[in-house]
Predict the 3D structure of the following.
Amino acid sequence: MHVRPVRLFPTALGDERGMGSLHVIRGGTTGGVVTPIKAEVLASGVAVPITTLDEVVSTLPGLFIDLLKIDAEGSEVAVLRGGERTTDHVQRVMVEYHSRELLSQVRDSCKAQTSRLEV
C-alpha cells in the first residue's frame, strides 16, 4: 500500500479569497469559527487567510478525489461554493452538520453544482 504524504495548508476555506478572523472558545481545544473580515470592520481574534477549495485542489496532483470530508463549523456551504470545479472530480462528499437547515443547504448546494453528488 502506498501512502501519500500529508500536506497542510495554513488557510481557512470559504467561497472567496480574503482574510478572516479565527475565534476559539476560551479554554477550547477542538475547533473554532472563522468569520470573513470586511474591509470596514476591525477584526478580533487571530487573522487568517481564506482561500477556496478550488484553489487548494488545483495545487495537488491528480484529478480524482474519492472522498471529500468537510467539517467547517457552519461554513460548509461556503466551502462547497468555493469548490465548484472540484466537485466535478469528487466521488463522495461527507459533511458534518449540526442542524437540519444546514443539511438542507448542503444538499441544495451539491445539487446546484453537479447532479452526480448525493448527500
Residues 100-113 form the longest helix (14 residues). Strands lie at 12-14, 18-23, 33-36, 46-52, 65-70, 90-95.
